[in-house]
Design brief:
It is built from eight helices and no strands. The protein is mainly alpha-helical and about 260 residues long. It has one domain.
């Protein structure tokens, strides 16, 4: 996994300033903003074959706003539905200790010390279950998002066999990527506080770029380990042009003749 490249590749584009500015502006748009930003990253990472050269990745262009939104819609919907399912699971987990504490107080405002001690193991076990469910959810969400991105559809994203195989082959890398993104999120929070929340918006497109970069690496390693390929949707065929390669430096000018030097 090339963690450093997931950060530095963003700034290798000659249009990185434009990408940063437009990505920050897009993140201010409610609901549609994340979809559009995700659609741009899907275009440059998954629809093109030259993504190994970050300096040639297409710059963010508002004339493709609708196309970006269409491509970012499916992973957005998958994450939305998965989040709703997780909430439906997590809420009852916390209702159990809360109801138990309410029964022990028996309508009184204060709980006795002995009664409070009986709730410590219950709350502790619920916390362990909560962390375990959150961890399992984060691992399963990656292959769901990946299939939604590549197939550009909602139903095919929920492929249990693919999710099981992906997590089974990649669980170590998934945990490391999660830790890396968590650390970068903490750094972004510090930057946000230091800059009085001004640095929040420019950091959003960089964080999104990092995750899509890591997701592409995870899929490549998964395929190298014999994982089942996901068919690329034909909806990703309409591509913006790549940036032109940098002009190579020309030969040095010939030396001036001695007569010209004397003049």
């Amino acid at each position: 996994m090339r963690y450093q490249a997931s950060i530095t590749d963003f700034f290798k584009s000659p249009k990185w300033g434009t990408n940063l500015l437009l990505g920050a502006v897009t993140s201010l748009i409610p609901v549609l903003g994340p979809m559009v930003l995700s659609g741009w990253l899907i275009t440059i990472f998954w629809a093109r074959g030259d993504d190994d050269e970050p300096s040639r990745l297409p710059a963010f262009d508002f004339q493709y706003f609708t196309k970006y939104m269409e491509r970012g819609l499916w992973p957005f919907l998958v994450n939305l539905v998965a989040g709703m399912v997780m909430s439906a699971v997590m809420v009852p987990l916390w209702l159990v200790p809360l109801l138990a504490s309410g029964m022990l107080t028996n309508g009184h405002h204060r709980m006795q010390h002995a009664e409070a001690l009986t709730l410590v193991p219950l709350f502790g076990s619920m916390a362990v279950v909560y962390v375990g469910v959150m961890l399992a959810f984060s691992l399963i969400l990656v292959p769901l998002t990946l299939r939604a991105t590549l197939t550009q559809a909602f139903g095919p994203a929920f492929n249990v066999g693919f999710a099981r195989e992906f997590v089974g082959l990649m669980w170590k890398e998934l945990l490391l990527c999660g830790c890396f993104m968590f650390a970068m999120s903490l750094a972004m929070m510090v930057l946000t506080v230091i800059t009085c929340y001004i640095g929040l918006f420019p950091s959003i497109p960089v964080m999104a770029f990092m995750w899509q970069h890591l997701l592409k690496q995870l899929y490549q390693i998964y395929r190298q380990r014999g994982g089942t390929p996901v068919p690329l949707s034909s909806k990703l065929n309409d591509l913006p042009p790549a940036l032109p390669p940098s002009a190579p430096a020309g030969p040095p000018p010939p030396p001036m003749p001695p007569a010209a030097l004397e003049l």
